[in-house]
Design goal:
The structure is a single chain. By secondary structure, this protein is of the alpha/beta class. It has one domain: Alpha-Beta Barrel (fumarase), CATH 3.20.130. Helix content is 25%, strand content 30%. The protein has five helices and eight strands; from the N terminus they run E-H-E-H-E-H-E-H-E-H-E-E-E. Helix 1 links the parallel strand 1 and strand 2. Helix 2 runs parallel beside helix 3. It is globular and about 40 Å long.
């Protein structure tokens, strides 16, 4: 089991291989369909610093944050998968979710030295490993706002890295 702590360094991201099992600790972002297009517009407008978090070395979990907990949503939804390349270019090193990604998304991850990891849908387990949550941006979206959560040893499996996918 590989232990990762945020922010994730370029060297740590480069060392990850498809099939590696990891545990992630530290602060990670959470966002999905409703908020990711808004974050991308901020990046395009040169306003990403207004989020109040540095995207470099960050992890983003494709989920909403609700009183019921967090659990992965399908990363291959249009609004989510289309955010992976630009978020990686902006510094995100690890995307967490579920489902297979398109080959062009896997290539974009490789170009940016970023990876994708799958988390089984285990909301109860992840809830026990989530220490703190706060809204970073777009509070009007409720549970689909951009959240920052503090996690302790979130389990995941690297699903795409260096141009390869676990689904191939």
């Amino acid at each position: 089991m590989i232990q990762l702590t945020t922010p994730i360094s370029e060297a740590a991201a480069a060392a990850l291989q498809v099939g590696d099992t990891v545990e992630i600790s530290g602060w990670i972002l959470c966002g999905r369909d409703a908020v990711l297009p808004k974050v991308l517009r901020m990046i395009e407008d040169g306003n990403a610093q207004a989020l109040g978090v540095d995207l470099r070395g960050q992890v983003i979990f494709h989920t909403a944050v609700s009183p019921a907990g967090v659990g992965p949503t399908s990363s291959n939804k249009l609004e989510i998968e289309s955010s992976i390349a630009p978020l990686s270019a902006a510094g995100i090193k690890l995307h967490l979710g579920k489902g297979a990604l398109r080959p062009e998304t896997i290539e974009a991850l490789d170009r940016c030295n970023a990876v994708y990891a799958v988390i089984p849908p285990v909301t109860a387990l992840l809830g026990a490993k989530t220490a703190e949550t706060r809204v970073v941006a777009f509070p009007e979206l409720g549970m689909e706002a951009l959240h920052l959560i503090k996690v302790d040893r979130y389990p995941a499996i690297i699903g795409a890295a260096h141009g390869r996918s676990i689904y191939d």
